TrEMBL record:
Belongs to the YciI family. Residues 1-93 form the YCII-related domain. It comes from the Bacteria. It holds the Pfam family YCII. InterPro entries: Dimeric_a/b-barrel, YCII. Signal peptide: none annotated. This is Transcription initiation protein.
Amino acid sequence: MKYLISFPSAAMVATGDELDAAGRDSHAVIEQAKAAGVYVFGGGIDEREPPVRVSGDGTVTKGGYPWAPPLNGGFTVLELPSREEAIAWAARLAKACRCDQELRVFGFDPAS
């Protein structure tokens, strides 16, 4: 099963040297996930580029859905055999990132 481990940008309160350490430590956890063969993909939303909504006819509207919370922060998808292992990896990332992580089952589409 694949799991999405994520955090919103507002959760990241580290600054300065602590932010540098969080980046270094979180990349080390990702390298461990790769070495363990559980890493699928990861990254973060580039918040310098604002979102747009694109309709079926190609109309572009500035901003995301007005009723939805903003989609930002960092994301990692891992393939793991159990929720317990997913929780353990989420805890490792939380410690490295210096902020809580959200854990969700990722609805992977095998036809993609």
